[in-house]
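User: Some background: our group keeps a shared notebook of sequences we're curious about, and every so often someone picks one and asks for a predicted structure to add to the entry. Today it's my turn. The entry only has the sequence so far, pasted here. Could you supply the structure so I can complete it?
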Amino acid sequence: MAYKIYVGGLPYSTTDEELQELFAQHGTVASARVIIDRMSGRSKGFGFVELEEDADGEKAVSALDGTEFGGRKLVVSKARPQEDRPRDGGGFRGGDRGGDRGGFGRRSF
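Assistant: Of course. Here's the predicted structure to add to the notebook entry:
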């Protein structure tokens, strides 16, 4: 299993290929992906890289955390396991919205 790394603080113009090149200096990259916002189609400023060897991943985290890339300071750490999230979308899309909605149109001033 590959060593998965979180990379934050990426310049918004960073491509998957640039992210891969940055980490290729530290080992064999299995995958590199900049996370894109679905609504805007723009980078969210973070991504994930998988290195094939755990030792290479640990070295990459040590070597790159806190370094500057494209004018921004990187935050590099071992990725935490993804948490299960509810599929209803949260927020106001479903479920109990709770509380008083303010009574718009019913107030007397």
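Suggested note for the entry: The beta strands are 3-8, 29-36, 43-51, 68-69, 72-73, 75-78. Residues 3-78 form a domain with the Alpha-Beta Plaits fold (CATH 3.30.70.330).
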